[in-house]
């Protein structure tokens, strides 16, 4: 693969591992990670995250919404990670709103509105409603940043391992769940970070 596509493969791999790792940390069942790179602006990535959850109370619904939004934020936050573990937040926001993560952004915007209704109740006026949305958005964005930074070594390492599988334009690459959990660094990380119930 040409160097510019290898760089894109690395970015997309970090993005998908961000979804995967933060999904795991927040109690979702995770699975395979797969990617296809056609061109810098034409690619597809997918991390299997099973979203089925107990939603039997308003508190459980609120928890689910918060966790799901953080998983969606985690992709761009992880993609923007530098080797020192610090994310480039401006890059992450731009990628979310105008770049390759616009589908994540659409999901976040919809879920934030549902979460706002759960937390604050019926909207009173547009200005107050927007303030409530901004408060929730910033809270979850900052919480996601903290989690991604905490687990940056796993994200960068697993992202690199997946990107190494990229061999040709248009050829799918990735790792199955079995392959992921068998990697020594991942196995060590999983043992040190038992999944919440």
Question: What does this 3D model show about the protein?
Answer:
The protein is mainly alpha-helical and 197 residues long. It is built from 8 helices and 3 strands, in the order H-E-E-H-H-H-H-H-E-H-H. It has one domain: Peptidase M41 (Methane Monooxygenase Hydroxylase, Chain G, domain 1). A 3-stranded antiparallel β-sheet has the order 2-1-3. A hairpin with a 2-residue loop joins strand 1 and strand 2. Helix 1 packs across helix 6 and helix 2 packs antiparallel against helix 4. The longest helix has 25 residues. It is globular. The model has no long low-confidence stretch (mean pLDDT 94).
Q: Would you spell out the secondary-structure blueprint of this structure?
A:
Layout: H1 3-25, E1 29-39, E2 42-50, H2 58-79, H3 89-97, H4 102-120, H5 126-150, H6 152-163, E3 173-175, H7 177-182, H8 184-192
Helix pairs in contact: 1-2, 1-6, 2-3, 2-4, 2-5, 4-5
Gist of the model:
This protein has eight helices and three strands. It is mainly alpha-helical. It has a three-stranded antiparallel β-sheet with strand order 2-1-3.
Features:
197 residues; mainly alpha; Methane Monooxygenase Hydroxylase, Chain G, domain 1; three-stranded antiparallel β-sheet; 8 helices; 63% helix; 12% strand; globular
Query: How many β-strands, per DSSP?
Result: 3
CATH topology: Methane Monooxygenase Hydroxylase, Chain G, domain 1
Could you say how many structural domains there are in total? 1
Briefly note the structural class of the backbone. Answer: mainly alpha
Secondary structure tally, helices: 8
